[in-house]
Amino acid sequence: MTLDGKAALVTGGSRGIGTAVALRLAQDGADVALTYHSQAERAADVVDQIKALGRRAWAVQADSADAQAVRDAVTGAAAEFGRLDILVNNAGAGALGPVGELSLEDVDRVLAINVRAPFLMTQAALERLSDGGRIINIGSCMAERAAFPGGSLYATSKTALTGLTKALARELGTRGITVNLVHPGPIDTDMNPADGESAPMQSGLTALGRYGQPSEIAATVAHLAGDDGRYITGASIAVDGGFAA
Ligand code: NDP
């Protein structure tokens, strides 16, 4: 299998896109560590599913807004598996609303989780990440197209990942480490359920006229993580059903 012998860390692996990514990487052969915030039982369930695939798995509670917890998650994962090859910065927070109604706490929380945490994760992972490793950030189609009002904070946070991704690709390329950004469109998860109030509007903004499934994001992450993705770096890849088209 393509990821045999590799070790991955997926943030926010207890639900949604993160769970799909964790399971897909495990199916492809990787041992997988995941972080979660509040859903310990769901994280434990994902760990069991990974182990059932014959891989090693490890979960740790780590609030992405807590700098030390973020760093400890990286060192813990690397210690657990004795190596680290793939980092997927997936955990994210949404805060939609008119710009005038967003509080300072909203701004600080969303930037801490969506921007500062991937930055700190990467810093902590750097010396542990194997040459030829992978960093895959999860952005949003809202970074490419702010198609409806209310996305100022969320789009700001996700757009920041473009700069991080490109600059890191330049910094780590000599080690064969690739850094990429995947922009999901509307994906059916707890954060954005396909039967939610705004779902018809969001589906209508895609070219395909439907929500995506978490596994459709995981498939692209797996390609980037695998050997076939080795010449892709610094890229922003839309997996959004044509939301940004
Ligand atoms: P979910 O709400 O379904 O899952 C979020 C995951 O992130 C959970 O595992 C959750 O842990 C974890 N998480 C949330 N807050 C924190 C935190 N403070 N610290 C650590 N972990 C945290 O979200 P999605 O799967 O939909 O989203 C995953 C990523 O994809 C996010 O970055 C999101 O912005 C992005 N995205 C999603 C889209 C969508 O339509 N769904 C569209 C575009 C981008 P726990 O279970 O413990 O709460």
What attributes characterize this protein structure?
alpha/beta; seven-stranded parallel beta sheet; 7 helices; 42% helix; globular; binds NADPH dihydro-nicotinamide-adenine-dinucleotide phosphate; NAD(P)-bd_dom_sf; KR_dom; oxidoreductase; SDR_fam
3D structure, described in words:
Helix 1 (16-27) links the parallel strand 1 and strand 2. The protein has a single domain, classed as Rossmann fold, CATH 3.40.50. By secondary structure, it is an alpha/beta fold. It contains seven helices and seven strands, in the order E-H-E-H-E-H-E-H-E-H-E-H-H-E. The mean pLDDT is 97. The protein has a seven-stranded parallel β-sheet with strand order 3-2-1-4-5-6-7, with helices on both faces. It is globular. Bound molecules: NADPH dihydro-nicotinamide-adenine-dinucleotide phosphate. NADPH dihydro-nicotinamide-adenine-dinucleotide phosphate binds at residues 12-18, 35-39, 42, 62-65, 90-94, 113, 138, 140-141, 184, 186-187, 189-192. It comes from Streptomyces coffeae. Keywords: Oxidoreductase. Belongs to the short-chain dehydrogenases/reductases (SDR) family. Pfam families: adh_short_C2.
